[in-house]
Each structure stands twice: as structure tokens, then as C-alpha cells.
Specification:
By secondary structure, the protein is an alpha/beta fold. It has 12 helices and 20 strands. Strand 17 and strand 18 form a beta hairpin. Helix 3 runs parallel beside helix 7, helix 9 runs parallel beside helix 10 and helix 11 packs antiparallel against helix 12.
Length: 449
């Protein structure tokens, strides 16, 4: 997709939902008196064969299972590599041994997207997701209807650990993606997999509603079972104080601090789950006290050296690399995520330890002592910050911009002085969270990198 182009509405509702014959709830969601000014239309496009695949995937994902044991590989891996070697031009004839595959990167996908498409992929099923580019240049990611729809079973497998289910019914709103941005695509849709249940993507920005109070009235009327979004959007929602009863909040895209998590859980009276995901392969892991627990058995995880193709042992920190997935338009083999952690296995399930979902940045005190960003993340995690950005300039002074509706400048100053051993000059700005935030997810930056 050209960078300057915008998605265009090209399909009818019958083409978006070929298996759903009753679209009355979709029309209700779109035409409600309190509905936002939806600016897009979206559907899952699942046919009978597709729905069968998603249902089978759901059954597999929700099973109690052993992903793999330390020092071993999952049973499906050899077959997957053989299939990629035979049908995906980028991996042409490399065979079924993982060790012969070099790592791949976002730059490879950006430069050769067509070489990653399996010869078996049905081009009539092609979907394109245009990423925001918040962690680098923008990227078009290709999907099919099945791999796109599989994100719901992935979320269900996480909710299962909290004994939470999603009701599949044509008269309920299952999931609402909450945004708080200057501008984004918004729509009402349905899930064929969830038997016609509603799916919403809404922007809290008051300019996208007929009246400012309509966002609360709309959410309260349809009371979504699950809310997804980033911490900024959730804190903007909290500021509106809607009278809704979600079963869980799924937070992603940015780091969720413990302070923000507690505020959200106190108000909404439900678990707030911090999920780590990539647009290129969707959900990967979610935060637990033992680290980020892997969600999917169809992704094989490894840790590599950040600067060379060297596999690192379990327990050693490096760049997370993923292999697998269900997307015939982008099968991944040793794909560098750009995020850093170490890996451990507990009872056959991988955990990402000390995950830092960003490029590694090192800060320096005035006297040149290196400061790990993990220490900073941990130090501010108990504060009610929906997000923050920290930048260091060449003179080693640091500037922190935080997003919170609580005045916490003094607390942040104390935390940073403690981490930098009182050997740093800093400026701190706390910005109030609004319903029209336009904040990227990059957290740390430095003139030294």
C-alpha cells in the first residue's frame, strides 16, 4: 500500500460476512443514536472452510499442553520448515533443519514481501494491515482471513488461565478495541467465529462523537465483555468513568506499569492482562509473576545475539526470535522481533524473562556509569503512569515526559535520582491524559544511539 493512500471501503457486508445471514445486530451497532461517527467497515470474511480451520485452531490452543522442553524443539517444527522450504520463495530449498536458517528481519519483509508468500496461499484471501511504524518505518503486513481471525482463540487461551470466557451470541458485544488518538479507523463489526457477536473499534476522541457524553452512553448500552487497547487509551477511558462491567482488559502495544494496572483493576473490578504481541505474528506472551508466559504452541521462540547470527543458551539475555505461525502470506522462520529478554522453560511452557519490548538503550550518569532501562522500568512501575518517554541528550541530561492524571513529578524525581545515584540532571513533564492522545509506543531514546 502506498504510504500516502488510505484504506478504502471495497466490499459489501455480504462479502464481509459470507456465513452470517442475520446482520441486524451489526446495523444496530452502526446506527445507534449514541454511536460514534464510524469511518470504516470491516469483516472477517470467513467461509465454511475457514471457520472450520479457526475452530480447530481454537481447540488446539486451549488444550493443556507442553510446548517443548528445554534443549528440544516442538514436534511440528520439522514439518513446518519442510513446507516453508518447498512453498515459500524466501526460504527456497533450505530444508527441514532449523540450524541452516539465518535470522530474518523487518527489513527483509519490507524489501521482499512477495518472497514471503507461500505458493499455496490463495491471493483472493489477501488482507493487508498497514502498521503505524511506531518502532520503525511503516510496514505492510499480509494476512489471510484465518490467520487474522485466530487472534480471538489466542486471547481466549489467555483468558482461560483467569477462568474467563467470551459469550458467543449474535446479540452481545464481545470485544471493543479502545483507542484514544487524534485519528484512527473506527468500525462496528461481527465475529463469525463467535456466532455473530459484535466487535467494535472506537476512538474516545470527542471529535468523533456527536456529543461528548455519547462515548459513555454507547459503551454502557453495549457493555463489551472484553476491552482491548493500550495503557494510554485505558487511562483515557478511566478518566471518563463509564459504568461498564468488562470481564477483562487486554493491554498491549506499550508497557503496562503496576501502578496503572492497579488503578484500572480497582475501577473496572476485573483482571488487566498485559499481552506482548507483534503485528507480524499477533499474540506471543502475557505478563505473569514469573515473566511473560508464551501463549501459542505454534510459535517456537529462541534468543539470539543482537548483532550477529549466534544462538544464545537458555537464561542468557538477547534478542527474541520467533518461528512459526499460521499465516501463509508471512510464514516466519527465525524472525528478529527487535525486543529483548532471556528465555526459560517451566513445565514445558516458555517464559520471557525481563522482556523489554524495544530496542536496547543504555543511559549514562554524568560520570559515565551505565544505567539499564530495566532498572528504570522497574523503578517507575509502581507509579500511576499510563506511559512515558525518556530521552538522553549528548550532555547526558535526561528528559522524561509522563502521562498521568496524578501529579507524580516528585515521586519520579526521587526514583530517577536513586537509579542514577544522584548523578544526573533531569527535567520532568507530566501530561494529563486526554481522549485525543497521539502517542507512539517508543519509550526510551538517546542521542548516543
Amino acid at each position: 500500500m502506498d504510504e500516502n493512500s488510505s484504506p478504502q471501503i471495497a466490499l459489501t457486508d455480504l462479502e464481509r460476512f459470507p456465513l452470517l445471514h442475520d446482520l441486524s445486530f451489526l446495523n444496530t451497532l452502526r446506527q445507534d443514536e449514541f454511536a460514534p461517527k464510524f469511518n470504516f467497515k470491516s469483516g472477517d470474511r470467513l467461509n465454511e472452510n475457514d471457520l472450520e480451520k479457526v475452530t480447530k485452531y481454537s481447540t488446539e490452543q486451549c488444550k493443556e499442553k507442553i510446548f517443548w522442553e528445554e534443549g528440544k524443539k516442538p514436534l511440528w517444527l520439522m514439518e513446518y520448515l519442510t513446507w516453508c522450504s518447498k512453498t515459500v520463495p524466501f526460504y527456497n530449498k533450505k530444508g527441514c533443519k532449523l540450524e541452516v536458517y539465518p535470522t530474518t528481519s523487518r527489513a527483509d519483509i519490507r524489501e521482499y514481501p512477495h518472497f514471503f508468500v507461500s505458493n499455496e496461499a490463495d491471493l483472493n484471501k489477501l488482507l493487508v494491515y498497514h502498521t503505524s511504524g511506531s518502532t520503525g518505518p511503516k510496514l505492510d503486513v499480509l494476512f489471510d482471513a484465518v490467520s487474522q481471525a485466530n487472534w480471538i482463540p489466542q486471547i481466549e487461551s489467555v483468558l482461560k488461565d483467569y477462568k474467563i470466557t467470551i459469550d458467543a451470541d449474535k446479540n452481545t458485544t464481545a470485544i471493543a478495541l479502545i483507542c484514544a488518538q487524534a485519528k484512527t479507523l473506527t468500525f462496528a463489526s461481527l465475529s463469525t467465529y463467535l456466532k455473530g457477536a459484535g466487535i467494535l473499534k472506537i476512538n474516545l476522541n470527542a471529535s468523533e462523537w456527536n456529543k461528548p457524553e455519547d462515548s459513555n452512553k454507547y459503551l454502557e448500552k453495549y457493555n463489551p465483555q472484553i476491552l482491548t487497547g493500550d495503557p494510554i487509551a485505558f487511562m483515557a477511558l478511566l478518566d471518563l468513568k463509564p459504568n461498564i462491567t468488562p470481564r477483562a482488559l487486554i493491554s498491549s502495544a506499550m508497557e503496562l506499569t503496576e501502578g496503572t494496572k492497579k488503578q484500572l483493576e480497582d475501577y473496572f473490578k476485573c483482571p488487566v492482562i498485559d499481552v506482548y504481541s507483534l503485528t507480524e505474528c499477533r499474540n506471543i506472551a502475557y505478563a505473569t509473576k514469573s515473566g511473560h508466559k508464551a501463549i501459542r504452541s505454534d510459535l517456537y521462540l529462541e534468543i539470539f545475539d543482537a548483532n550477529k547470527d549466534e544462538l544464545l543458551p537458555y537464561g542468557q539475555r538477547g534478542e527474541l526470535v520467533v518461528t512459526g505461525g499460521s499465516n501463509p502470506f508471512l510464514p516466519l522462520i527465525r524472525y528478529r522481533t527487535g525486543d529483548f529478554c532471556s528465555l526459560k522453560i517451566e513445565k514445558g511452557v516458555p517464559f520471557l524473562v525481563d522482556l523489554e519490548a524495544r530496542n536496547p538503550i543504555v543511559f549514562y550518569s554524568k560520570s559515565g556509569i551505565k544505567i539499564n532501562t530495566i532498572d528504570i522500568s522497574n523503578g517507575v512501575s509502581h507509579l500511576p503512569l499510563a506511559g512515558f518517554k525518556l530521552h538522553q541528550t549528548k550532555d547526558k541530561s535526561i528528559t522524561l515526559t509522563g502521562y498521568s492524571n496524578t501529579e507524580i513529578t516528585k515521586e519520579i524525581t526521587n526514583v530517577l535520582n536513586s537509579i542514577f545515584n544522584n548523578d544526573i540532571e533531569m527535567s520532568i513533564a507530566i501530561k494529563k491524559i486526554a481522549q485525543s492522545n497521539n502517542i507512539g509506543k517508543s519509550q526510551y531514546s538517546s542521542d548516543f544511539f
